[in-house]
Amino acid sequence: MMRKRLSLFVAVLMALSLLLSACGNAAATNESAETTEGLPMNIMQKSDPAQDDTINVLMIGNSFCYYYVEELYGMAKAAGIKMRVCNVYYSGCKVEQHWTWWKNGESNYSYFTTDENGRKEVKNTNLEYCLSQQNWDVISLQDASTVLLKNNITPQEQLTKMTTCLDDLWGYIKRQFPMSRHLWQACWSYQIGYDRGGYAMKDPQTQAKMCELGQEYGDLVCKAYNLEKVNTGDAWQLVRQDGYDNLCARTSVNNGGGDYYHDGDIGGGQYLNACVWFEVITGQSCVGNTYRPDYALDTDITYEKLQEAAHQAVQNRKVN
User: Which of 165, 242, 258, 310 is most open to solvent, judged by the fewest CB atoms within 10 Å of its CB?
Assistant: First the structure.
């Protein structure tokens, strides 16, 4: 009888041991699942993008990253650099709108590709599709140019307002592309005399203040999310210091006069922006680059002057 009770006791102990072991394994599995959730999983990016011979650039934004891409491609080609410049584009799109469409998987974008085959468009697509098209060397994001003006808030207040959106968007992009460079474009202010949404560019001081706010907002975003800044707005202000404020002029808008807030071709805004982007992306000086677009500039500005302003702006960014 004693021997049977001992055997039963041993059996019960073994059963309890197995049960505790199973519970421990389950707890360890759950703990592992919780601690790995949200970590970079390299879902899209499988290799270092620097290993191939083409610099693939993706600009997520609006019309302020739309017009100068052909000039950027042309400058890279003139410098012997293979580059593909792509846009996730929707007119006037703000960070909050990018975030909402990404969260909902909405297909509202046009996706543009500019390379040796020219410029091509895919309509009605979503952010995930655009991100999946290349192993991106560079991915950039920007806010709408009007957010600080229309909301009448400080750059810090705008950053606080956008924290959830930026946390989610940059978190997703960096999980998918941890080996890419991540950029933020701080854009230019409007031409004097233009009134957009009740915020008028009355004088050089108002114009400079708009640029200053945009640059400060960009600095705060870059610091918070470990990004590189593309300071096109600073380059515009350097050109304006010499009294030239026609950078928005285009051949095909308003009888050749431009719309006073987009970058123009004959006014030099597109070429100037391309110079800034070229330097930031490649690390090479744009000064002396031989690329010239197929339009003639205003007689009051030169390609050399635009190159010098862009170079100075990028150099100042490095100092700051």
Answer: 242
The pLDDT assigned to 3 comes to 41
Q: Using only the alpha carbons of the chain, give its radius of gyration.
A: 26
CA 54/CA 136 separation, integer angstroms: 10
* Residues 6 or more apart in contact with residue 216 via CB below 8 angstroms: 155
d(CA 124, CA 107): 5
Cα–Cα distance, 236 to 246 (Å, whole number): 10
pTM score, two decimals?
0.85
- CA nearest neighbour of 303 among 275, 282, 263: 275
| Calculated CA dihedral for residues 264, 182, 145, 256, nearest 10 degrees | 10
Residue that the structure tokens 């992009």 belong to: 173
| Structural domains of the chain, ranges and CATH numbers in brackets | 49-319 (3.40.50.1110)
Percent helix, percent strand, percent coil in the chain, to nearest 5: 50, 15, 35
